[in-house]
# Entry
Amino acid sequence: MNENNHQSLQEHNDDENSPLFEARDVSVKYGTSEEHKVEALNAVNWKITKGEFVSFIGPSGCGKTTMLKLISGLIFPSSGVILHKGKPILGISSGIGMAFQDTLLLPWRNVLDNVLLPIEILRRPREEYRQTVEDLLSTVGLKGFENKNIWELSGGMRQRVSLCRALIASPEVVLLDEPFAALDAFTREDLWLVLQELHTRTACTMILITHQLNEAVFLSDRIFVVSKRPGRITYTQQVNLSRPRVLNEAFSRTFLNDVESLRNRIER
# Structure
């Protein structure tokens, strides 16, 4: 191997091992004057690699959603820097899908048209994504519901549509801000399996905000524990459960130990 080829291979390996996103000493303050500013995050550091499923957990008001806003480019750090593939994030990226607790589906559109909304915003040809819509809806258990009205769907079904909409444009990363918080326990657990399947099929990076410790353990590869405001990363937990995961694992000793460890870290 000549020197140039060796250098090219080394650069490729460095890219593969480098973080997709990285926070370096990030602090965020909200407010218009120094006297009334509120510090949401303080000196936060973390790294997220391509294809990972990571979660941020912590008490209400600790800055978890602020993390997602930083990654999406909706806001910028007061100090420090958020990097995407080694470069500072300077604005909103088109390669990001989002799903929230409120599905924000448009009631005057049917399921198909709601899922295709990002394609219209990006001004891409709708017809080229018809098969993708059908594949996504089949994955989430809504095959044949393309022409149903939103008001005809249950809360869990609406959240499935929201997940499909978040993934329709093949985003590099999907940001999930407590998407299952308003659902009952049985529906929520069913959607864990749906989200796990979507993560496996798409191989995109997923970043979840949740208050449910068992949800974080079931879905994640790694979990960041955030302190009360101003938020800091106080602990990072690796989840070593094999994939695909099944609901019965939530009663295993390993799973329960992980949940207990997270709870202890938060209470500290």
In short: The first strand starts at residue 21 and ends at 30. The beta strands are 21-30, 38-48, 53-57, 79-84, 87-88, 96-100, 173-177, 205-209, 222-226, 233-238.
